[in-house]
Specification:
With 468 residues, this protein is of the alpha/beta class. 44% of the residues lie in helices and 12% in strands. The protein has 16 helices and 11 strands. The strands form 2 sheets. Strands 1-7-6-5-4-2-3 form a 7-stranded mixed sheet, sandwiched between helices. Strands 8-9-11-10 form a 4-stranded antiparallel sheet. Strand 10 and strand 11 form a beta hairpin. Helix 4 packs antiparallel against helix 13, helix 5 runs parallel beside helix 13 and helix 6 packs across helix 8. The longest helix has 35 residues. Bound molecules: pyridoxal-5'-phosphate. The site of pyridoxal-5'-phosphate (PLP) has 14 residues, from helix 6.
């Protein structure tokens, strides 16, 4: 390496150390001036001549620190973006360094087999048979959900791969609390959003199986083809878990594909006391699980699990003259998944899981669960009401002074965000209850961080700005 290469590496190492050591001292939320930011980039980076390394790095680090919502901050009580483990950062850096091509097995045997091994271990943790489950890494939950719909279509409609849905009208059943990726998937698969039926939820925000069954009967009567049921295990807004066992019975009886979208929730399968909340998940035809949500690795690392290997191969199988042949007993990712050229997505999870072990992960997830319980207790003690019902650490809460008004909740959360000490968000539960939402997404969140959150919630500035 050239001397200037060492400068880069020293700077990177220093930044990793400093950022991780000082994260609690940083604001969670940036103070943004878009004009300033654009002017700075325009004037400083004309790309006409090289920028000196020290100067470039210092500016990069400053911009990233000051102009980012710090999702890895222990007081980011936010969307499902976690703190990331150091081994996973190293794993991701190694993926960048070696840049293995994961389209074909034969180009990257080591990482392909590491991914296969990690996926088989996680399949077993779900309760699936790792020897027959087909699984792959994806960019995220949206791609895993997309894969599930494509595989179900290929599996249940004989000539779907050749002719598309044609005049058959397959129907996808989601609940009003399901993730909105299914709307885009309906567009991407060519089914159109009219293929989606949105089933109401009961008072605990779980899909209503009776309404679902009624809708299936009605669709059959109208000559549509009931195809795909989405059970959400950890809804994005309120963290509720649909009655999977009951939906598995219904799918078996009616011959529908059951997909469990557990993008965030599935990681909590690793906590023994929470397993019963997911009862029946091993009966699903396919499952979505995001490592970049619950398993504290950098984005994006989604996972798609399917109990029907033949169906996956039918959906994605292609042969080309230019791709290298694979080894017997192996599968090429390009002919068994949505992607083609692909990064070594699973390497960071392999390194992190090997370094922490399932025990280490269980401790992190148990800690996060406990912090969620503590937060609930403290909110109740401070006379907030909890409006969601889940054993997972996402808490939705409100109080009468916010008058079930979405605008008041939004400005209350906005005022707190702008103070920069914690990040929480507004949400609407079940389409009718306005609430604030705080999710424990960092294994580093501790009691003192909850103190700060409570202080912010009770602070007169937050409420006076909220009611302005
Ligand atoms: C986040 C989420 C998704 C989408 O996953 P991405 O990784 O953002 O693509 C899908 N379903 C649920 C339940 C989610 O929480």
């Amino acid at each position: 390496m050239k001397p200037e290469d060492h400068v880069w590496l020293d700077l990177l190492r220093g930044e990793i150390e400093q950022f991780r050591d000082s994260i609690r001292d940083l604001r969670v939320t940036p103070e943004i001036d878009l004009t300033d930011l654009r002017n700075h980039l325009n004037s400083r980076y004309r790309f006409d001549e090289p920028v000196e390394t020290d100067e470039l790095f210092e500016d990069l680090a400053r911009l990233l620190r000051e102009q980012t919502v710090h999702a890895t901050h222990p007081r980011y009580f936010g969307l499902f973006n976690p703190s990331v483990t150091l081994p996973s950062i190293v794993g991701d850096a190694l993926a960048a360094l070696y840049n293995p091509q994961l389209a074909a097995w034969s180009h990257a045997p080591a990482v392909n087999e590491m991914e296969r091994h990690v996926l088989a271990s996680l399949a077993a943790a779900i309760g699936l048979d790792p020897t027959t489950t087909q699984a792959n890494f994806t960019t995220g939950g949206a791609e895993a959900n997309f894969s599930a719909v494509l595989v179900a279509l290929a599996s249940r409609i004989d000539d779907f791969v050749e002719n598309g849905a044609g005049s058959t009208r397959p129907v996808i059943y989601v609940s009003s609390e399901s993730h909105h990726s299914f709307h885009k998937i309906a567009v991407m698969t060519g089914l159109g959003t009219r293929a989606i039926r949105t089933i109401p939820v009961d008072s605990s925000l779980r899909i209503d199986p009776v309404a679902l069954e009624r809708q299936i009967v009605e669709d059959r009567r109208a000559a549509a083809v009931p195809l795909f049921i989405v059970a959400t295990a950890g809804t994005t807004s309120a963290g509720t878990i649909d009655p999977i066992e009951r939906l598995a019975d219904l799918s078996a009886r009616e011959g529908l594909w059951l997909h469990v979208d557990a993008a965030w929730g599935a990681s909590y399968l690793l906590v023994p006391s929470l397993r019963s909340a997911f009862a029946g998940i091993e009966r699903a035809d396919s499952i979505t699980w995001d490592a970049h949500k619950g398993l504290s690795v950098p984005m994006g690392a989604g996972m798609f699990f399917c109990r029907h290997r033949e169906a996956v191969m039918k959906a994605f199988s292609v042969r080309t003259a230019y791709m290298p042949a694979n080894e017997g007993g192996t599968t090429d990712p390009y002919s068994s998944t949505v992607q083609w050229t692909r990064r070594a997505i699973g390497l960071k999870l392999f390194v992190s899981l090997a370094s922490l072990g399932f025990d280490g992960y269980r401790e992190y997830l148990e800690h996060q669960t406990r912090m969620g319980e503590r937060l609930r207790e403290r909110l109740v003690a401070a006379e907030w009401s909890i409006v969601n019902d889940t054993p997972l650490p996402v808490v939705c809460f409100t109080n009468p002074s916010l008058e079930n008004d979405p605008a008041r909740h939004a400005s209350f959360a906005g005022a707190i965000q702008s103070r920069g000490r914690v990040w929480i968000s507004p949400t609407v539960i079940g389409g009718q209850t306005s609430a604030l939402r705080a999710c424990i997404t960092s294994y580093q969140t501790n009691e003192e961080d909850l103190d700060v959150l409570m202080e912010e919630l009770e602070s007169p500035q937050a409420s006076s700005r909220g009611f302005a």
